[in-house]
Write a structure and sequence with these properties.
By secondary structure, the protein is α+β, with helices and mostly antiparallel strands. The chain is 31% helix and 28% strand. It has 2 domains: 260 residues, Beta-galactosidase, Chain A, domain 5 (Distorted Sandwich), CATH 2.70.98; 378 residues, Alpha/alpha barrel (Glycosyltransferase), CATH 1.50.10. The chain contains 18 helices and 36 strands. The two termini are 36 Å apart.
Length: 651
């Protein structure tokens, strides 16, 4: 019995199986994703989705899917499944699905008549999907047919039938190469044994993606089929089909598959699933190491990178990758800011918190390297650049005022992590002094002074030594209320927002806090009472008239709910850290419960992964991206907290 598996009754029930998705990445920017029965429900789904640097540096769906058919006695059984208008599924290959399970890689088993066919697939670092089909049983002579469905378009768009598609192909060893449009690289479609290719170019019209329809986007697509491959297959025989951007050697495909399997982590328990998922967000390509914020639609985000970096790398004993990501990101600092999204000339710098989370990431990095001298040597100038720009003033009115607090805000811009914008207006603008920004600022300055003192940087110490006390005093004056016993979410000189939000928890969890232990305990109790759910911290208390407990609808409706009650798993890392700092061993039971609450998610939404967000209202359904870097990272960090406390108890 596998840790992750689904039976026939679950698989043939499309209402159940289409809500469970698979994701595999190759740590070089490419991914493969679909539902467990192979029916694409998103425009982001595809078996080979690769970055196209020569076009727009974004991901493109090349191989949308592949229909597998077995042929016996002139009868054809098609195992594919796609949705068309009128809630019509054709072909209906899900009827033949009998088992799905994951040990190292996903395995899907079909049965029809006397035929039992097993499918396994892996995605390799050289942008290649390798799909292995094994005929486990057959009562008569059998053929297998491979019919590829191609899209050749950006993941955010949809393909439509047109007269410009290039229908030509070129034979290669055991296959063909083709490209639908001249701007693209060639796609190589090959098998490990000789197969007959029948060229029969055709369009399949109005394929529907129900998740896009549900989210209020265009949801119908036309897919191009150039033809199909056909080969005899015997009982016990394995045939490999591959699609890649370079020509493969058919003779080595089986060996390559086995070599790739040997690199893969098992998924025999909850922790292994999280650790395996963590690796999927690492992106190494063209000399850069980056973190993808989430799949299937996010790219690299600055704040997400620094928040998720420790959990994805350091707590997986991968200090080297952590350093590589830090080096990549710090090479792109401009005016004391990191790119929020994009890079180079296309970078958007509208994140006041990304530079401040960088300091926290360095603090975590120091826990593992124990080398303050090298950190100051490698990153000291970057640290000074950020602090000086924040003190003197940089873009988006980001500036330290005389009270030692950081002010940030510009019309039409959302600069904190609560960054949803509807109709050009931020849903939660939070312009002024934001509570987490100033908790992060206090922590950043204190940590920088710690490094400078160790490295005897007298000029830096002299320039900054007076700032923390000013910041601390002002923080308490602006954000704390002795009657309310929690922190305001943001303030101006004339106004304080007392909406109960989770941003105040960072003042309880960061290594340097402006709050006393008593105040931190009060804040944590308030957050626990008003915001804690089994799947994350709500972004707004249900007691607020603006609270929205369910995240659904079109983009405008979803964005209005995004930070107005929706629960976020990543916030639990800081909540648990703050909770343990106050309660120690007695707080461990709650932290363990929080961690274990997500084990059931290994078979929900993104299989073996953690979703971006959850409804604030019960039953707290998974929403948003099916795999989110900081969700996974912070759960792994919580697991480490638990391990550390248990080890200390034993010792």
């Amino acid at each position: 019995m596998s840790y992750i598996e689904f039976d026939k009754e679950q698989l043939i029930n499309l209402e159940y199986s289409l809500k469970r998705e698979l994701l595999r990445t190759n740590r070089a920017g490419s991914y493969a994703s679909t539902t467990i029965v192979g029916c694409n429900t998103r425009k982001y789904h595809g078996l080979l989705v690769c970055p196209m640097e020569d076009i727009d540096n974004d991901n493109h769906v090349l191989l949308s899917g592949i229909d597998i058919s077995v042929i016996q006695n002139d009868a054809i059984f098609n195992f594919g499944v796609r949705k068309y208008p009128g809630n019509n599924y054709h072909p209906k290959g899900h009827k033949y699905v009998r088992d799905f399970y994951i040990d190292v890689v996903p395995k899907l088993v079909w049965r029809v008549g006397g035929v039992v066919l097993q499918m396994e697939r892996i995605l390799t670092e050289d942008d290649r999907i390798i799909i292995k089909y094994t005929l486990l049983e057959a009562v008569s002579k059998t053929k297998i047919r491979f019919k590829p469905f191609l899209a050749f378009r950006n993941v955010h768009k949809l393909s439509k039938a047109n007269l410009f598609v290039n229908t030509k192909f070129t034979p290669v060893n055991n296959g063909i190469k083709l490209r639908m449009y001249d701007a693209y690289k060639f796609l190589y479609l090959q098998t490990n044994k000789e197969a007959e290719y029948i060229h029969a170019p055709d369009w399949y019209y109005n394929v529907e993606y129900e998740e896009e329809q549900r989210r209020g986007y265009d949801y119908q697509e036309d897919l191009y089929v150039p033809g199909y491959f056909e080969a005899d297959i015997k009982t016990g025989e394995t045939i490999i089909f591959t699609a890649g951007l370079d020509e493969a050697n058919p003779k080595t495909l089986a060996r390559k598959y086995n070599a790739e399997i040997a690199k893969r982590m098992p998924r025999t328990n909850y922790r292994e699933c999280l650790e395996s998922a963590a690796k999927q967000f690492i992106y190494k390509r063209k000399g850069k190491s980056e973190i993808v914020a989430g799949y299937p639609w996010f790219g690299r985000w600055g704040r997400d990178t620094f928040i998720s970096l420790p959990g994805l790398t350091l707590y997986q004993n991968d200090i080297k990758t952590c350093k590589e990501v830090l080096d990549t990101m710090t090479s792109e600092i401009k005016d004391g800011l990191f790119p929020n999204i994009g890079a180079g000339n296309n970078a958007a710098l509208n994140s006041v918190d990304a530079p401040l989370w960088f300091f926290w990431a360095l603090q975590e990095y120091l826990k593992f390297t124990k080398d303050k001298v090298k950190i100051w040597k490698d990153f000291g100038e970057k640290i000074k650049n950020i602090l000086e720009n924040f003190r003197s003033g940089t873009q988006f009115n980001i500036k330290m005022h005389d009270n030692g607090l950081i002010w940030a805000g510009e019309a039409g811009k959302a600069l904190t992590w609560m960054d949803a914008v509807v109709a050009g207006k931020p849903v939660t603008p939070r312009h002024g002094f934001a509570v987490e920004i100033n908790a992060l600022w206090y922590n950043a300055v204190k940590f920088s002074l710690e490094l400078a003192e160790h490295n005897k940087d007298k000029d830096f110490i002299e320039a900054w030594k007076h700032v923390p006390e000013i910041t601390k005093s002002s923080f308490l004056q602006f954000f704390w209320d002795d009657n309310k016993h929690y922190l305001a979410d943001y303030c101006t000189y004339e106004y304080k927002d007392w909406a109960i939000r989770p941003n105040q928890i960072f003042a309880c969890s960061l290594p340097y806090s402006p709050l006393s232990e008593e105040k931190r305990e009060r804040v944590l109790e308030k957050v626990k009472k008003e915001l804690l759910t089994p799947k994350g911290l709500r972004t707004l208390s249900p007691s607020s008239p603006d609270y929205k407990g369910v995240y659904k609808g079109n983009q405008e409706q979803r964005d209005n709910a995004y930070h107005q009650g929706t629960a976020w798993p990543w916030l639990l890392g800081s909540f648990c850290e703050g909770w343990l700092k106050i309660h120690g061993e007695s707080g461990l039971a709650l932290v363990e419960k929080i961690y274990l609450n997500f084990e059931e998610d290994m078979t929900i939404a993104g299989i073996g992964n953690i979703s971006e967000i959850y409804d604030g209202d019960p039953p707290h359904n998974a929403r948003g991206a099916i795999a989110q870097a900081w969700s996974v990272a912070e759960l792994l960090r919580i697991a480490n907290m638990i391990d550390n406390y248990k080890n200390n108890i034993k010792s």
